[in-house]
Amino acid sequence: MSYDLPCATPRDRHTGPRRPAHPGRRGDPAPAGRPTRRRKPNAIDGIRSQMDKWTVKDYIDNKLVHSLHTSERRSFRGCRRRWNWAYRDMLYPVVTPKALEFGVAFHKAMEIFYAPEFWAKDQEIMKLAALSGFRSECDMQLKRFKTLNGEPEVDVLVDYKERIELGTNMIKFYCETISPHYDQGFRPVEVEVEFEVPITGPQGELINCKCEQCRRRWKNSDAGVKHHDDLQVKLNDRLDNYFEDHWRGLPVTYGGRLDMLAQDDEGRYWIFDWKTTARMLNEGTEEAFLELDDQIASYCWALKTHYNIPVAGFVYVEIKKAYPQPPEELSRLYKGRKYSTNKQFMTTYALAKTTFEQNDPTALAVGLYDDYLNWLKADGPRFHQRHQIHKNDHEIEEIGKNVYLEALDMVNNPRVYPQPGRFTCNTCLFRQPCLGKNMGEDFEYTLSTLFEKKTQHYWEEKAASTE
Length: 467
Known about the structure:
By secondary structure, this protein is α+β, with helices and mostly antiparallel strands. It has a domain at 329-379. The protein contains 18 helices and eleven strands. The protein has helices spanning 43-52, 56-61, 70-78, 80-88, 102-113, 123-149, 154-182, 212-219, 222-235, 242-245, 294-306, 349-359, 361-365, 370-379, 393-411, 431-438, 443-450, 458-461, and strands at residues 66-68, 91-93, 186-198, 208-209, 250-264, 269-277, 311-320, 329-334, 337-339, 384-390, 451-453. The strands form three sheets. Strands 1, 3, 4, 5, 6, 7 and 10 form a seven-stranded mixed beta sheet that branches. Helix 1 packs antiparallel against helix 9. The longest helix is centred in the middle third of the chain and has 29 residues, at 154-182. It is elongated and about 95 Å long. The protein starts with 42 loop residues before the first helix and ends in a 6-residue tail after the last helix.
């Protein structure tokens, strides 16, 4: 992204409440009528001044930050025990990867299709490029699966081929039918946009973290080793209390990855988020939650506040994991019709009408398909829909305040306890060890056998997905 991140240095932004002035206390104003005594600089000042020259951007560029993501925020609000195991202890379930991560491969196709350099080019070329990217990603995933697990079983290959067929037909339908109708009035600016921004308080104050993960990250970094060793040589001291007395901690930041940033004809910027789904939201009822969705809304805050991009809101794009097919031909005539009018079948008004015109024109002419076609036109299966959510300046400011307050709670050694939920516990990956801990069993053995301890979070090593 070509926008500069306007950051103050960590020294410019105080990380805690300021103490009131106190006569005689070092660093506080001297009482009236008493001259200020200047302390001579020492070795510690020299070392500290070197680190004080680092801006937040320097910490971000060196990946020396405590990065919070939407998934962790939601986990923290949902159940602190699950959050503690997943994000502080870095425990992930031991699973065999699928031969095809469908959402990752489909996302790759959308990334290519909406690439700014392809935009406004020949639609057929864009479609073929998207299909090629999808297939290349699929082949790469299968090769990786074989490397890790050997030759796949027959059922794995069957599932792989079915997903290839599904994705190929979804992309064709999207590029040929959906895009020409909906992709009007905007142009892509950038796809697959990663960002990392500082979380700041009302007065611009930073949050610094000294948790175990941050200590380990700093200790293993070149900058951390140099800071420690230089200070040790200057002071001729073992620095047993280095982390407590000489290290300020790592800045707490907010990270994410948006699918596409686009600009409309009026110059406003919109964040696009692509989602493949088996079930579309019910228009007029279920999509209301998007007004309160904290993921893409927080992305609006990050881009507008820290990159000075005038983001107007976001566009939530739903793509059904299916594609329209011609109506099924019956084995024999039923009520004078050669084709099924089953409303559960995935087809469209245009495709059904063309099929009837070509293969059963008599029944169509006398009105035997009228009810079915009218239903398809008004309430038939939907394969795509978009929800455009506008965010005003006050909403974006409030989002930033909420992110700051939540970050304070998360990094300040919060109390950890289970938060059972009727709908969340049954599908929780940590259900078994959680029950074991409640009953006084050896839950740590369950954690060590069913989970593996990672050194990176999933967003640091996993590709973007539409799922």
